[in-house]
């Protein structure tokens, strides 16, 4: 599994928070969901003053639950996909982060409650996300976005689904997507990168946890480019992208390689590798690096929507 002994040491301001993150185990999806929900509930609640928040369903087969965040003087739309290894996470666990992205960017954020594995393996989550993307592109004006420019983004597995939405939209000549916001994306089922092989005991996310998430997501289906975007040979014609990685994250190197492949295909990319961080550590709001990560997500989305 590993090439050699690997050591890691997170930034000093994050060290005390490491024990607060749940044990990295997806063998029991229900228990894992509960652990993530507990972690999210312990985070400070964001200030939603001046923001309109609405729960609704997007028509599809089946309908997709979404939560829409409309800040004052909103500009542009972001379809946002939560993390959780394709197994965990929902509209509630993602609420603090959707609020902060909306506040930081000024965009209307549509948080998607996509179906999760193992109950609903690939392509259920992608189908849900794509349906919301098409709906958002069609209804951007009436969402009060101030423009019809629409972006797609997400965190971790959600960022991988976001990348797949962009690929499917390109290949199907589907809804126009202006920008990709990919935070610590999970893109490669093969797990052959250096970080995937060597990070076996890093906080919250490990080699084994990533492997389990792919097993749940793929079930018996072969991995296609729409399940694992790193498998795509042709990345030309995709929207400009922002890719952020955490230093001590098994998914780190596949995200960096994906960003490089986008660049090689002529796609504008901004890549930021955050030193001393681990997967999901931006939840530690007491740390300056976490606050800078969250602020940057909003700032780059604003620039991407204005480009």
Q: How many DSSP E strands?
A: 8
Q: Would you tell me the overall average pLDDT?
A: 94
Taking the alpha carbons of the first and last residues, their distance comes to 43 Å
CATH topology: Rossmann fold
Taken from the alpha-carbon principal axes, the silhouette is globular
Largest sheet entry: 8 strands, mixed
| The CATH homology group name | Alpha/Beta hydrolase fold, catalytic domain
How many domain regions? Answer: 1
Return the CATH class: Alpha Beta
> What helical percentage do the residues reach?
25-40%
Weakly predicted, low-confidence segments: 1-5
Q: Hey, roughly how much beta strand do the residues contain?
A: 15-25%
What's the architecture in CATH terms? Answer: 3-Layer(aba) Sandwich
Tell me the radius of gyration.
Answer: 18 Å
Order of helices and strands: HHEEEHEHEHEHHEHEH
Structure characterization notes:
Keywords: Hydrolase. It comes from Actinomycetospora endophytica. One of its GO terms (molecular function) is hydrolase activity. By secondary structure, the protein is an alpha/beta fold. The protein has one domain (12-306): Alpha/Beta hydrolase fold, catalytic domain (Rossmann fold). Helix content is 37%, strand content 17%. The chain has nine helices and eight strands. It has an eight-stranded mixed sheet with strand order 1-2-4-3-5-6-7-8, sandwiched between helices. It is globular. Mean pLDDT is 94; it is low at 1-5.
């Amino acid at each position: 599994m590993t090439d050699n002994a690997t050591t890691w040491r997170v930034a000093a301001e994050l060290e005390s928070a490491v024990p607060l993150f749940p044990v990295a185990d997806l063998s029991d999806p229900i228990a894992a969901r509960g652990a993530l929900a507990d972690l999210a509930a312990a985070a400070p609640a964001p200030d939603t003053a001046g923001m309109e928040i609405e729960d609704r369903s997007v028509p599809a087969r089946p309908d997709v639950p979404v939560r829409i965040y409309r800040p004052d003087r909103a500009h542009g739309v972001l379809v946002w996909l939560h993390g959780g290894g394709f197994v965990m996470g929902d509209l509630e666990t993602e609420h603090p982060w959707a609020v902060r992205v909306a506040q930081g960017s000024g965009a209307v954020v549509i948080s998607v409650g996509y179906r999760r594995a193992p109950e609903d393996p690939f392509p259920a989550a992608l189908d849900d996300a794509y349906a919301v993307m098409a709906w958002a592109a069609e209804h951007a004006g009436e969402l009060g976005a101030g423009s019809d420019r629409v972006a797609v983004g997400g965190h971790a597995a959600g960022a991988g689904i976001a990348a797949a939405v962009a690929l499917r939209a390109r290949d199907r000549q589907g809804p126009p997507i202006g920008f990709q916001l990919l935070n610590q994306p999970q893109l490669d089922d093969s797990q052959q990168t250096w970080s995937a092989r060597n990070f076996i005991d890093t906080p919250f996310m490990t080699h084994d946890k990533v492997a389990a998430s792919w097993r749940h997501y793929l079930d018996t289906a072969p991995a296609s480019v729409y399940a694992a975007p790193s498998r795509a040979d042709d990345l030309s014609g995709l929207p400009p992208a922002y890719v952020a990685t955490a230093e001590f994250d098994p998914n780190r190197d596949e995200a960096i390689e994906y960003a490089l492949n986008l660049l090689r295909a002529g796609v504008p990319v901004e890549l930021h590798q955050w030193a001393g961080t681990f997967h999901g550590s931006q939840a530690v709001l007491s740390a300056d690096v976490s606050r800078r990560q969250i602020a940057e997500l909003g700032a780059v989305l604003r620039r991407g929507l204005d480009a």
